[in-house]
Amino acid sequence: MGLGSPNSWNDVGVQSPASSRVGRRTFLTGLGGAALVAVTGCTNPFSSAPTTRTVVSQAPPPVDPLMSLLATTRLHVERINAGLVNIAADPAGVVVLTLVQADRAAHLAALEAEVARTTSTPADSAATSAAAQPGQTVSISDDPAEIIATVLGDCVTAQTQFRDGVQSTSRYRAALFGSISACLATHRLVLQPS
Amino acid sequence: MTTPTADPAAPGTTAAGTAPVATDPAGSAPADSAPAFGTVEPEAIAALQQALAAEHAAIWAYGFIGAFDKDQLDISRVSTYTQQHIISRDGTIDIVTGAGAVPVRTEVAYSLPIDVTDDLTTSRALSIIIEGDCTNVWRFVIGCTDNAFLRDFAVSALSDSAVRQTAWKLVDPAITPNPVVAFPGAPAS
Lengths: 194, 189
Prior knowledge:
The complex is a heterodimer. Chain A is mainly α.
């Protein structure tokens, strides 16, 4: 095998490619980039610290206002019943309160029927925890004017609650709540001092 | 209450005793309509058209009632209530138009559900019927939509009509002893 043949040893040193050598400029550039990442707060791939992640949680579903409205209505009916006892000496007040009491009792019956229709929980046991128990006395003034004012205030409160309840419920209940809200608006007209 | 006497084939005309229903195919909006106040369902648009027709009828009827008020005992009330119905009508037209539908038009004249003679009692009784019809259609609108804005608008209109109806009953208790209704707008009320 002669020196000039292709299979002979080559004693000439093989030049390494320039790209495989990490030059000083490349090294400094990389070091500067790592420092920049650390300064700007980006994730350090060499860090073992736990990563803070932002999780966007879903808003809770809207609460069905039916039970709250039922409790409010039951309380107001109890208060009107107590007012009817105390206002017996005022015939005009009795007439007005009787009209309002009949409507509010109808509202209560409709709400209880709706609870019974859509749930297995009896309306009586579901809402009494937040309202007056049947037979429980509700204190109210003996002054006819104060009684009317108290019932009027209850009407204002209930109208607002029923109107708000219209927004976050089913179509059937929305129509029911809207109708009750309108009725309470008429009660305000009847109860307001002339 | 009032029923149109105009051409039954015209848009917004209806059978006797019922609120007008839009019969114009152009009156139904496309399902994907999304106005600024949110999507309005096709069934809600149909209900709004009925409410609009009732408001048209109420405005016409109050003009009719005013003609019988010779001593002008109710002129202020009639004028105020007419303006309130006009506001409700215009708001309804805006919603219907914004939903991409063509609002029903008013009729030239309407037939009355009762004979209005030359006294205030019958005209006041007609007013009570008018407002009762408006409560019916607005309650129906509430039950036809999931749109929060539309529900709020309809509850306001329902409450306003119910209050006006009660006010008329208080003016003349001889017409209806009970001035309040437990469920305004409900079919049984």
